[in-house]
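Bit of a strange request maybe. I'm writing a small parser for structure token strings and I need a real example to test against, not something I typed by hand. Could someone generate the tokens for this chain?
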Amino acid sequence: MQTLLWINKWGIWPSGENWHLYYKLSQAYSEPRLLHEAPGHLFLEHEAEDLASFLQAAMLNGWGGYVLTEADYVNAFFSHDSYIDFFAENDQSLADIRKALGSGRS
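Reply from user aminoacidic:
Good idea to test on real output. This should exercise your parser:
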């Protein structure tokens, strides 16, 4: 399914941001715009590795934002404060995430 990575917080800790890495990654995907001009990146189902790379770059830079799935199965908020919140309409979907991540909580 399509997934949107929407980065909405940056500049919190400027000394820890690697803009060069982010823009090189963006340029590799033919995206010439600056982050504030295009804070959202849409990934198709077969681009899961690409999504993971952009998400990792965002988190390493101390940025925050959302991972929003087309089917609204499970979505996530990632914080510049180094945590991720998952949210879903269906409790079973969250239980599946807990199981996949190895959490003992139900």
